[in-house]
Specification:
Strand order of the largest sheet of chain A: 1-2-3-5-4
Number of strands of chain A: 9
Shape of chain A: globular
Helix content of chain A: 25-40%
InterPro entries (chain A): ExoRNase_PH_dom1, ExoRNase_PH_dom2, ExoRNase_PH_dom2_sf, PNPase/RNase_PH_dom_sf, Ribosomal_Su5_D2-typ_SF, RNase_PH
Number of helices of chain B: 7
GO molecular function (chain A): RNA binding
Strand content of chain A: 25-35%
Number of strands of chain B: 14
Largest interface: A-B, 32 and 30 residues
Structural class of chain B: alpha+beta
Protein name (chain A): Exosome complex component RRP41
Order of helices and strands of chain B: HHEEEEHEEHEEEHEEEHEEH
Radius of gyration of chain A: 18 Å
Largest sheet of chain A: 5 strands, mixed
Keywords (chain A): Cytoplasm, Exosome
Shape of chain B: elongated
Pfam family, one (chain A): RNase_PH
Oligomer: heterodimer
Order of helices and strands of chain A: EEEEHEHEEHEEH
Chain lengths: 243, 309
């Protein structure tokens, strides 16, 4: 199947190879949570809610007294993918993604400022069309910012692949399941450091460099968008406060 | 008690904020007297009257990949319902009926009370209530879910996710289930030579050589739609459509479900300190009847908005 049309150079959903899907984000969607955000990348729609810092609920899990405990749970709605047959959480993929998101966010939260407390990040996928891992990390960043949790930098994530000898940015589900390599990168935007890097399938080293650079460019574009959204949100809050 | 003074505002502003601190502390420390003070004036902390419900909105079709879906908000309480249809062989006792499976989830995002490993205890209760009400109201005629009598019929998986839990969970959940069934469209279906039934999407429709089992996409015809209303009782006061705070403070809730023909479908009063005399029950029924008119209008408006698109 041709994922990149040789005549027009466009992908199956009409995008150019280095074009990302349409981004949309909204802060404060769950009023009961300390911080929450809805993040959309094309058809992938994800809600993240942050509760914390609050008292540690399971003393057994608390490793040391000098840092906050970060916990994350990822779950997919039953109707989020094409066919319904899935166990929404507790299956291996969900556990792995929960771990990945937790460790990525732990890298940027200043946990030493909140000892003996717990920060819970819950992510719920409402619609999945490829790139759910990245959408979850981006949503979690916005939710943590909404909750006012001190962070080193904003973490953004994007995926890129390599099909029909072309590096492609931000794969959707069809392109992801094509069997080509899929590189997911998560960076700390301003510090320009990579915190998450995952790849599967075979890729020669120099092609890998190109694909990873493309993904990092995507991350920076998302970081720009996230900053705009946070600025808009702050202006609204300022307006409501009446100053 | 010394209250903290802030630098902003002059004398009037400072006492305003000082009073504000007192009120919030009073609300947390003595919730029942706080509510009592409001009830004496026939008003609630969010400025609603005792018998008015929160703003309700219904939006149909938010989940494009599902056969029917709806997003319902009652105040801050948000529910997302989606129906997916799959083909199954009907049972021998009922060869021309399909079936409905209802599942209600409260993921940890919805409330600080829900944690992984400690699921909300109301979730399975509401799940069962929903299934009972949908079955007993007869809203969906199961014979409409039949494809080929004795060989194939539809099983409708209804999944409802609570995205924000702020009281009246059952109300919002039932409303979202009803709205999702209103939006449901049964897809076209065709049979292979081995007798396997599969769904045909609209693009394949022109190209298919197989005979289509049903000629056109259709919606279910729903009769007697059930609409719910939850009230909390405190002494002689009835508060309609409680928020999560009101539900925790007043503890006794009654849920009534009536259908559009005026029949009582379900009464649910799971114990509680407050006792409901016949007068209180009659009052609740009157309030529910009024609420049904409101909900019916809102549902019809959302259907016509969707059809315009």
């Amino acid at each position: 199947m041709e994922y990149v049309n040789p005549l027009t150079g466009l992908r199956i959903d009409g995008r150019r190879p280095t074009e990302m899907r349409h981004l949309k984000a909204q802060i404060g969607v769950v009023s009961k949570a300390d911080g929450s955000a809805l993040f959309e990348m094309g058809n992938t729609r994800v809600i993240a809610a942050v509760y914390g810092p609050r008292e540690v609920q399971n003393k057994g899990q608390q490793m040391n007294n000098t840092e906050a405990l970060v916990r994350c749970e990822y779950s997919m709605a039953n109707f989020s993918t094409g066919d319904r047959a899935r166990k929404p959480k507790g299956d291996r993929r969900s556990t792995e993604i929960s771990l990945v998101i937790r460790q990525t966010m732990e890298a940027c939260i200043l946990t030493k400022l909140m000892p003996r407390s717990q920060i819970d990040i819950f992510v719920q996928v409402l619609q999945a069309d490829g790139g759910t891992r990245s959408a979850c990390i981006n949503a979690a960043t916005l939710a943590l910012a909404d909750a006012g949790i001190p962070m080193r930098d904003i973490v953004t994530s994007c995926s890129a692949g390599y099909l029909c000898t072309m590096p492609l940015l931000d794969l959707n589900y069809a392109e992801d399941s094509a069997g080509g390599p899929d590189v997911t990168v998560g960076i700390l935007a301003k510090m320009d450091k990579v915190t998450l890097l995952q790849m599967d399938a075979k890729l020669p080293l120099d092609t890998f460099e190109t694909v990873m650079q493309l993904a990092i460019e995507g991350c920076k574009a998302i970081a720009q968008y996230i900053r705009e959204i946070m600025l808009q949100n702050t202006k609204q809050l300022e307006c409501r406060r009446g100053s | 008690m010394e209250t903290t003074q802030t630098t902003e505002g002059g004398g009037g502003g400072a006492t305003g904020i000082a009073a504000q601190m007192e009120v919030e502390a009073f609300r947390r420390l003595f919730p029942l007297p706080f509510y009592k003070r409001h009830l004496l004036e026939s008003v609630r902390p969010d400025a609603r009257a005792l018998d008015s419900a929160r703003d309700t909105t219904i939006s149909l079709g938010p989940v494009a990949s599902a056969d029917g879906s709806a997003l319902v908000k009652i105040g801050e309480t948000t529910m997302l319902a989606a129906i997916k249809l799959e083909v199954m062989t009907p049972s021998k006792e009922r060869p021309d009926e399909g079936s409905i499976v209802v599942e209600f989830y409260m993921p940890p995002i919805c409330s600080p009370m829900v944690r992984p490993g400690r699921p909300a205890e109301v979730a399975p209760v509401i799940s069962k209530q929903l299934l009972d009400v949908i079955r007993s109201s007869g809203m969906v005629n199961l014979k409409e879910l039949c494809l080929i009598s004795g060989k194939a019929s539809w099983i409708a998986y209804l999944d409802i996710y609570c995205l924000n839990a702020d009281g009246s969970l059952f109300d919002a959940a039932l409303l979202s289930a009803v709205a999702a069934f209103t939006h449901l469209q049964i897809p076209l279906v065709s049979v292979t030579e081995e007798g396997r039934v599969f769904t045909v999407s609209s693009e394949q429709e022109e190209k298919t050589k197989f005979e289509l089992v049903n000629k056109e996409k259709r919606k279910l015809s729903l009769s007697s739609i059930p609409f719910p209303l939850t009230c909390v009782i405190h002494e002689d006061y009835i508060l309609v459509d409680p928020t999560a705070e009101e539900e925790t403070v007043m503890e006794t809730s009654i849920t009534l479900v009536l259908d559009t023909l005026g029949n009582l479908v379900s009464i649910y009063k799971p114990g509680g300190v407050g006792l409901a005399s016949t007068e209180i029950m009659k009052e609740c029924i009157t309030r529910t009847k009024r609420r049904i008119q409101e909900l019916k209008t809102i549902l019809e408006e959302s259907v016509s908005v969707m059809e315009v698109d």
